[in-house]
Amino acid sequence: MDSSVLAALISVPVALVASAAAYAAGRAQASGAYRGPVTAVRRQHQREAYAALLTAANTYTELTEWGVCLTEARIHLGVDAVFEDRAEEVTRRAARVRADVPVEPVRAATSVVLLEGPDHIAELARNIEVIAQQVRSDARAGRGGPAGALLALSEGHDWQVPARYNLIEAVEAFTAAARGHLNGGDLPA
After folding, report:
1. pTM of the shown model
2. Are 174 and 128 in contact (CB under 8 A)?
3. Which of 55, 58, 82, 103, by CA, is between 20 and 30 Å from 64?
4. Nearest to 113 by CA among 47, 172, 49, 183
5. C-alpha distances out from residue 4 to 12, 18, 19, 108, Å
6. What is the chain's pLDDT, residue by residue, as a tens digit (189 residues)?
């Protein structure tokens, strides 16, 4: 066989393999060029959703702090800081103030995080919403203040950590997980 024919026969498969490799590389590069901006936009939407939830949850947490509720109750009832003669009335009013803090901003922000994901972040967001609802329920039942543990024990219930403290922990867990996700801790492959 002629050497030029043999060289031609050998170069055809090499050219086919090289062209297939070039095609695959170009396709991967094009896919990366497309996914890069999409991923950046998605991360921005997630960041905004996470920030909105943190804002709503932190605001709710601040407004349900017992001292804030107690101060508002005192102002509403026209009672000074020393209120021993009306302590029970002020405490009931403070629980009502806590129960009246709206949970809807937390619920609305949570729903956006549930859409944006990912699943483990959405689960932590749902946990914040559930615990915020528990803070409200406890306040409506009169278990929200510092005397809530004594009330629970006097009613024969087991003492539990107040829901508001669980809410603070849930917000901290969400913050850490969201920060890890947004800063590349679990980027898609």
Report:
1. 0.70
2. yes
3. 82
4. 49
5. 13, 21, 22, 74
6. 666 665 555 666 666 666 666 666 666 666 555 556 777 888 899 999 999 999 999 999 999 998 898 889 888 888 876 666 788 888 888 899 999 999 999 999 999 999 998 999 999 999 999 999 999 998 888 776 655 555 555 666 555 578 889 999 999 999 999 999 998 765 443
